[in-house]
Amino acid sequence: MKAGFVGLGAMGQPMARNLHRAGLLAGAWNRTPARSAAFAGETGVTAFESPAALASACDAVFTCVSADQDLLAVIDALCPALRKGSLVIDCSTVSADTAREAHARIAAAGSAFLDCPVSGGVEGAKNGTLAVMCGGDEDAFLRAQPLLQAIGRTIVHMGPAGSGQATKATNQILCAGAIQVAAEAMAFARAEGLPLDRVIEILGKGAGASWYFVHRAPFMARGEYPAGFRVRLHQKDLGICRAMAARHGAILPVVEATLADYAHLIAAGHGEEDISTIFRLKAPLFRDPADD
Fold first, then answer.
1. Which domains does the chain possess?
2. Largest Cα–Cα distance in the chain?
3. 180 contacts: CB under 8 Å, gap ≥ 6
4. Could you give the 3-state DSSP secondary structure of residue 115?
5. Secondary structure (DSSP) of 10-30
6. The one catalytic residue among 126, 168, 236, 282
7. Does the active-site annotation cover 205?
8. What are the tens digits of pLDDT across the range 124-155?
9. Handedness of CA 43, 156, 240, 124 (dihedral sign)
10. Nearest-CA neighbor of 161 among 111, 108, 102?
């Protein structure tokens, strides 16, 4: 089975590279042609001129784009050219309703769709150790195993179409809480005059540790926030969580607090930084030890 990849962003490009290393990638398409051309030059795969050209040459198509409407636009571009019985595997983060709509459109074209959002950060994408949460028909999930195993370490079928995205929304709520707590803890440790590198070393092995503390507290300690999981993207994801919760008549305090913080960060020009930049809002809660 040969796959094509649509969307060579921060997560998509390393995922596509892992498919190439596994001998499973035919080529890629990106909205910015220079990016797919550079990737093709690096790997030797084809830089397709359109999603339709990619679909007609592949048994499976991965998509990894930024927003709901972007995904549906790509789906519409793929559908007329998809091989009968092919797989479309979406690793974007979109709403569960969008995933169900994509499933319906792909099914009408005679192919199968899986919503397979991922978690594990850019590090997990590079190392092929992502957690992949999958929604869709079980037979499609089983057929996709060789492809999914090239990008992830933990791969779980969550249920019918939309279930993968509902699971990812749950994950994004966890991320909001984890980054809030990590930032407040680091601001507290700094105010106490503790050596932050040693705080990260010891507490990263403790009961209160999280992926975000271990991997993003070092950013906070250095005051550097290179683009990983960008504030703007998590804001978009939490907007999805807010809308899904509202259907149950619920308001989620951690989601609302994080969205408010992100609005401040974006207004201050930090929307393209990693979400660990929330430390910028937590550190001023304490007097700077340098002022003592």
1. 3-161 (3.40.50.720), 167-291 (1.10.1040.10)
2. 70
3. 254, 257, 258, 261, 278
4. strand
5. TTHHHHHHHHHHTT-EEEEE-
6. 168
7. no
8. 999 999 999 999 999 999 999 999 999 999 99
9. negative
10. 102
Q: How many residues does the structure list for the chain? A: 292
Instruction: Kindly give the pairing relationship between strand 130-135 and strand 118-119.
Output: antiparallel
Q: Which residue type, as a one-letter code, is found at position 84?
A: K
One-letter amino acid for residue 201 of the chain:
E
Rounded CA-CA distance 254/106 in Å is 35
Count of helix runs (H) and strand runs (E) in the chain:
14, 9
pLDDT at 283: 96
Instruction: List pLDDT tens digits, range 271-285.
Output: 999 999 999 999 999
Helix (H, G, I), strand (E, B) or coil at 199: helix
Cα–Cα distance between 77 and 161 in angstroms, integer? 20
Burial of 142 (0-12, 13-18, 19+ CB in 10 A): exposed
Contact indicator for 88, 63 with CB cutoff of 8 Å: yes
Token representation of residue 249: 């008549």
Cα 198 to the chain's mean position, in Å? 30
The pTM of this model reads 0.93
